[in-house]
Specification:
Number of strands: 12
Distance between the termini: 69 Å
Radius of gyration: 53 Å
Low-confidence stretches: 92-97, 495-504, 546-572, 706-743
Mean pLDDT: 75
Largest sheet: 7 strands, mixed
Shape: elongated
Length: about 950
């Protein structure tokens, strides 16, 4: 017999014994419960009979004593017994009621119940006789004032003798005692009947336990003989094999599972020895391969060291080239700018203007290369400070006004009145981004207009700041999907037919996107062929305290007052002196000329040591400090000047160097420099810095001396359709190809929803998931409210869902809830409308469920799916049912890779539904959806 059969037989026997033991326990419990019920009933009946007997005896004795003695105390005791009889029975039985009520609730046979009722009837008859006798004895007397002469004791005694009251009382007592004896004998009989089965059950349980113990002992013996002992022998054999020995095979007595296992062990031993020989050979080869790997690792480390060294060389080369290129550029741009101010002839002025423009373009290329390199290496940092938004827009307008005028383009700058005038943020990088976008807009637009607008997206953020939306739009040729995909790639020049006449490195938009990411935003584009392009992004800024703004305004007012005083003959403000520290004579000359044009006195020092001596001599209001100089550089000179006791507030020091990287800026701030100007020096940037840091401000700005006041109210003069676009600025997210949608709307219009949240895709995804969590069961809730007749509650719920759906672009749900709201709370919506609402909500749940896995969002549109992608998608759909059976994970991954390709095409929603079915393992729905999409891709009608 095999071990498995022995174990099964033993387990079955033990199971039967346990079942028998359980049945015995159940029977024993039932017998004990029946005995408890009999005992409880006996005690209740016996307690009733004892109470009846006791109460009857006491009541009779007190009444008899009063009738024959006339003692008032006896009367009082009888009266108390008579009044408290019911209460005593309540205390004895724990229930309300009289003896009759307790007797009726006894669980006794019909004959015994009749005897009890007869006894109680005798008791009631005796009580009525006692009441009559006591009434006759009391007569006209009674408590509380007893009149013994008023008692009729004699008449009561005669009546008692006549009715034989003593015999009645004795009969009640005798009946009670007889009934107790009968009940006791009956109780003993019932106990005797139940005792025999209980004893039998106890014996049966004893024998079952004994058999169970015997079975356990037998199992132990069998296990020791058939399992433990053979396993010990096999274990010793296995240890010998593990020690490398070749022991003799064992001869097991029984042909069971252990014998089969040992035979397998024998075969395993032969295989193991052969594998050991193979492993030794593999180990020999591995040692040889390890030596080769060590050699390859050494070569890789050497290559890595060379690559790192090359990277450092590249960085150092860029820094040196930046400095070396900016020095002659400073001379070219500066001298050409000063020459243009000298009143030259038309041809000469045109030549110099071209030289100045070309130098500026070259400088812009150098700046972008350096900034792009710094961002890639993680060296660029945000530079937050307070700045004026209108002033920034004016500088941008001036920078592109000439190019726009040459091409006869309309240049529109719009500032939302709700935007704060002064905010705190990264002005330098923001200006660079907007300048890149505006330069591109002017470059690629042949006719029409270029527009730059700043709007308030969110007024009150959690950190106390605001969020502004920046939009640069043009009426240029626009872009298709292919061009938009590679638009932000480095060194991508876009459409060659458009850029052939416009030189460039292709770093502008790539740098702009990286700078926007650095500032905490995301640069996006909306464009279509022939409909222009719109670049937009949102950034957060800090509120500037009102006192600071008032201070700046006051300074401006003081400047205006100073000019008026000068015009009226009032003593002018003394000239301010600026120290230019520059080792290059050309750069020093350019800076001196620019400062002289602004009405400032200029001193020049050729190195840092000379600058320290000039400052020590006094009379210096501001220092323009070069960084790299002989004798003593600008950083050491700044530290020496600060050590002399000149604080940044007393003597501003502005760095003026060709190094434009973030590390150089940080070094300047660490030694006490107030600000940073890059070479070649832009006159507008120089004068703006002087207005900020020169004590008392800049009295005369040559660039704005003839300019009128800024006017940013262009939006009020725009056409009506342009005003509508400004009021709905977030519509830049809408794909122009989907401007006209079907009346029913889309299940989830991602573009409309993104426009509501300012293009924040992560926020929009989170809001969609929250919409599903809060209102996914709204169809069921609406049906419940309508079933309860709560039409007002249904109207409130429909109104809430409508508002949220409208904000998130859930268009079909919004349309249906609007129909419900029109009829509620007067008329409940029809069943057809509720069914359609439930179906639309289920479709929304299906769409949004795809966002929970990877957060991807696709939008249906009219874009074209390329032929290669179409063929690959058809092939995947054809084998998709088989993949679901054999490789589900690969099927989902393959569909995920197609999601970006179908975004914006008519097949986006269909592929989203197929992906949801794959995630839900819904093969039935998947086959139908895949077949329908295959027909659409082949151009067949559904």
């Amino acid at each position: 017999m095999s071990i498995r059969t022995i174990i099964k037989t033993s387990n079955l026997a033990q199971l039967l014994l346990l079942l028998l033991l359980g049945l015995c326990l159940v029977s024993l419990g039932r017998g004990l419960n029946e005995g408890r019920r009999v005992l409880e009933n006996y005690y209740r009946l016996d307690s009733l009979l004892v109470d009846v007997e006791t109460n009857t005896r006491q009541s009779y004795e007190e009444a008899h004593a009063f009738i024959f003695t006339g003692n008032p105390e006896r009367y009082a005791r009888w009266q108390m017994l008579n009044q408290d009889r019911v209460h005593e029975m309540q205390d004895a039985a724990g229930h309300e009621g009289t003896f009759e009520h307790i007797a009726r609730n006894l669980n006794v046979t019909g004959g015994l119940q009749g005897q009890v009722q007869a006894l109680l009837a005798q008791r009631r008859h005796l009580d009525s006789l006692l009441d009559t006798a006591m009434s006759m004895a009391v007569g006209n007397s009674g408590p509380p004032l007893w009149d013994r002469d008023g008692l009729d004791l004699k008449g009561a005694q005669n009546w008692v003798d006549r009715v034989n009251l003593d015999s009645e009382a004795q009969q009640v007592l005798f009946s009670a005692q007889a009934l107790r004896e009968v009940q006791y004998r009956s109780f003993l009989e019932q106990v005797s009947k139940q005792e025999s089965p209980l004893v039998q059950m106890v014996w049966a349980m004893f024998f079952a336990l004994l058999a169970l113990a015997a079975s356990a002992v037998a199992n132990i013996y069998i296990f020791q003989k058939r399992v433990a002992k053979p396993l010990g022998e096999v274990s010793q054999y296995a240890e010998g094999v593990a020690a490398g020995e070749d022991p003799e095979p064992l001869k097991l007595k029984y042909r069971d599972e252990l014998a089969v296992m040992f035979a397998s062990l024998q075969r395993m031993k032969g295989t193991l020895f052969s594998r050991i020989r193979e492993l030794k050979e593999a180990e020999r080869r591995a040692r040889k391969s390890k030596q080769q790997a060590v050699l390859a690792r050494a070569q890789a480390l050497s290559s890595l060291e060379l690559a790192q060294r090359a990277s450092h060389v590249q960085e150092d080369f860029l820094r040196r080239m930046s400095h070396e290129i900016r020095t002659p550029l400073n001379a070219i741009i500066g001298m050409s700018y000063l020459s243009l101010q000298a009143g030259l002839s038309g041809v000469q002025r045109d030549y110099l203007s071209q030289i100045n423009k070309s130098g500026s373009l070259l400088l812009d290329m150098v700046n972008r290369i350096l900034d792009f390199s710094s961002i890639n290496e993680g060296l660029l940092r945000r530079e937050n400070r307070a700045f004026q938004v209108p002033r920034l827009l004016e500088l941008l307008r001036q920078s592109v006004a000439g190019s726009a005028l040459e091409k006869q383009l309309e240049l529109i700058f719009t500032l939302d009145p709700a935007v704060p005038e002064v905010v705190e943020g990264d002005e330098r990088h923001l200006e660079e981004v907007l300048r890149i976008l505006l330069d591109n807009a002017v470059k690629y637009t042949r006719t029409g207009s270029v527009e730059c607008s700043v709007q308030l997206a969110h007024g009150n953020l959690e950190d106390g700041g605001c969020r502004l939306l920046f939009v640069v739009a043009d009426s240029g040729p626009g872009m298709d999907a292919v061009l938009k995909d590679k638009l932000f790639e480095p060194f991508a020049l876009g459409d060659e037919s458009l850029t052939r006449s416009n030189s460039g490195l292709g770093l502008g938009l790539a740098l702009a996107r990286q700078l926007v990411n650095l500032m905490g935003g995301e640069l996006s584009v909306a464009s279509a062929p022939g409909k222009g392009s719109r670049f937009f992004f949102e950034l957060s800024f800090g509120w500037v305290q009102q006192a600071e703004a008032i201070t700046e305004t006051t300074s401006a007012q003081e400047e205006a007052a100073a000019v008026m005083d000068s015009a009226l003959g009032v003593a002018p403000t003394p000239h301010r002196t600026v120290l230019v520290v520059e080792d290059n004579d050309i750069n020093a000359q350019i800076a001196s000329e620019l400062l002289t044009q602004a009405g400032l006195d200029v001193r020049v020092a050729s190195n840092g040591l000379a600058a320290v001596e000039e400052v020590r001599g006094g009379g210096v209001d501001l220092v323009l400090m070069d960084v790299q100089m002989p004798v003593m550089d600008g950083l050491q000179a700044t530290m020496r000047i600060r050590a002399l006791g000149f604080s940044p507030a007393d003597l501003p020091i502005l760095a003026m160097t060709a190094h434009a990287d973030a590390s150089s800026r940080l070094e300047g701030k660490n030694v006490g420099m107030n600000d940073y100007l890059t070479k070649p020096v832009d006159p507008a940037a120089l004068y703006a810095a002087l207005e900020t840091w020169l004590p008392g401000g800049l009295q005369f700005n040559p660039l704005t001396a003839d300019a009128g006041p800024d006017d940013y109210s262009g939006a009020a003069d725009a056409e009506s359709h342009e005003e509508g676009e400004e009021r709905h600025s977030l519509d830049v997210m809408r794909d122009p190809a989907q401007a006209s949608s079907v009346p029913e709307g889309q299940a989830v219009n991602v573009e409309a929803g993104l426009a509501t949240v300012g293009g924040n895709r992560e926020l929009y995804r989170e809001l969609l998931l929250r919409f599903v969590d809060h209102y996914g069961e709204s169809a069921r809730e609406l049906r419940g409210l309508l079933a309860c007749g709560d039409l007002r509650g249904a109207a409130r719920l429909a109104h809430t869902v409508k508002g949220v759906a409208a904000n998130l672009g859930v268009e079909r749900v919004c349309r249906l809830t609007r129909h419900m709201e029109n009829s509620l709370p007067l008329i409940p919506p029809s069943e057809e409308l509720m069914d359609e609402f439930e179906a639309c909500m289920n479709e929304v749940l299906l769409r949004v469920r795809c966002l929970e896995g990877d957060g991807s969002m696709v939008t249906a549109g009219s874009m074209h799916l390329e032929g290669e992608h179409r063929d690959n998608l058809l092939a995947l759909l054809a084998e998709l049912p088989e993949l679901m059976e054999t490789d589900w994970g690969n099927a989902e991954s393959a569909l995920q890779r197609f999601m970006p390709l179908v975004n914006g095409t008519p097949y986006a929603e269909d592929l989203t539904a197929i992906l949801a079915s794959v995630k839900d393992f819904d093969n039935a729905a998947l086959q139908g959806q895949a077949a329908a999409l295959q027909r659409r891709l082949r151009g067949e009608s559904l």
